[in-house]
């Protein structure tokens, strides 16, 4: 029984997502597709908080494909007014909202088997996985990359200057002179993360060959 058949108890959109992993990833690094992801949420509790919006875009051949983006807002049963000053998303705002299940369907159709890039990726992917769990679905199968971790790989190790334990997206934007105009919107943060990722790749390439293995 193949991987597609084992998922037959799940909805069609999950089966299509799983089937995409039958396609091997490109061996040529420049032909890989990276999906840069960001979520805006009601808080930082992966179990009790919810995703407000998902922003994602693709990098192919070291270029951001601005014609192929994902930008969705999710209808809220859970709402935390204390997080509004951060993301600016109001409960009854002007955004066209969709259900969590429709959002997951759109995201899975968008991400396919591609590599996911995010800043503090464990949080964004964890929030997606929590949403999938509520729908009775397994976790994401994609290879993840974290720009916070990757950035630390570019730093010179010195007894005089010790790297910080964590680098924020603001830290990277300032380091690489990236505009923070659309900061704290899911798509805006995904775009900042994508620009930072491309800058990081240049730095890593100065030290060693670019390969997926060298980024993990």
Describe the structure.
Residues 33-206 form the Exonuclease domain. The radius of gyration is 18 Å and the shape is globular. Helix content is 37%, strand content 19%. α3 links the parallel β3 and β4. The chain has a single domain (3-215), classed as Ribonuclease H-like superfamily/Ribonuclease H (Nucleotidyltransferase, domain 5). The chain is an alpha/beta fold and 216 residues long. A six-stranded mixed beta sheet has the order 4-3-2-1-5-6, with helices on both faces. It starts with a helix and ends with a helix.
List descriptors.
exonuclease, DnaQ, alpha/beta, 216 residues, six-stranded mixed β-sheet, Nucleotidyltransferase, domain 5
Mean pLDDT: 88
Strand elements, count: 6
Rg on CA atoms, Å: 18 Å
Instruction: Give the full name of the CATH homologous superfamily.
Output: Ribonuclease H-like superfamily/Ribonuclease H
CATH architecture: 2-Layer Sandwich
Biggest β-sheet: strands ordered side by side in the sheet: 4-3-2-1-5-6
CATH class term: Alpha Beta
Structural class of the secondary elements?
alpha/beta
User: How far is it from the N-terminal to the C-terminal residue, by CA?
Assistant: 31 Å
SSE order, as H and E?
HHEEEHEHEHEHHHH
Taken together, the total number of domains comes to 1
In short:
This protein is an alpha/beta fold and 216 residues long. It is 37% helix and 19% strand. The protein has a single domain (3-215), classed as Ribonuclease H-like superfamily/Ribonuclease H (Nucleotidyltransferase, domain 5).
Element layout with pairings:
Layout: H1 3-6, H2 12-19, E1 33-41, E2 51-60, E3 63-74, H3 84-87, E4 97-98, H4 100-111, E5 115-118, H5 121-134, E6 144-146, H6 147-153, H7 169-175, H8 186-205, H9 212-215
Parallel strand pairs: 1-5, 3-4, 5-6
Antiparallel strand pairs: 1-2, 2-3
